[in-house]
């Protein structure tokens, strides 16, 4: 006889300065993910806008602000536009591998370079190797580190240029955190490529959605999340299609129904 499911206990953090909107404070509600039902709980909370960080699920619970909006891409309906197709072709040589959630020195070094270039002065820049190991390895759910490597002369995986900590949920992939080499002139847009690779992977694996976390209206740092359609946002009425005015108009043009194939170990892992 199975043990009864215990309803989780939720807690609220103290207000602290918002990292996205100057002059505002943020507050979060969170609960622990542990025990035999951690996966089921994470899936259920993910569908109502929670995100995972190590063994905690959280979502914004700000007193006077609702700018953070959970967004997800309907993977099967995604069709890359002309610019996105070009980006996919430019990076199709990358070797993509789904790795077990174990941190490496190479990953941490890439993260440090990424944070220094894109988020100098941010809270994550203070992470050391132990903090990074906790971020990757403390997971009670089905997680992988998706690595993106340039091939060497023999076509084997070479230098690491991108990575993403990704959860496989019951209804899709949740991109927990991605980082990449920002100094490669021949691979500009690598972060966008990583998102599209996840969307195409989910579609091929029969997973309906790719969860991108929170989109914050008015935050320039978050505008990249509205480049992929169909996009859905979580409202009080549930998930609804979302087409914000800030979306680049070019996304409506050059639609193609050709989808790059899902490759290698990434296909095997996410077809489970």
UniProtKB/TrEMBL annotation:
It holds the Pfam family ATE_C. Residues 106-234 form the N-end rule aminoacyl transferase C-terminal domain. GO terms for biological process: ubiquitin-dependent protein catabolic process via the N-end rule pathway. Residues 16-86 form the N-end aminoacyl transferase N-terminal domain. It is found in: Cytoplasm. HAMAP family: Bpt. This is Aspartate/glutamate leucyltransferase. The lineage of its organism: Bacteria, Pseudomonadati, Pseudomonadota, Alphaproteobacteria, Sphingomonadales. The gene is bpt.
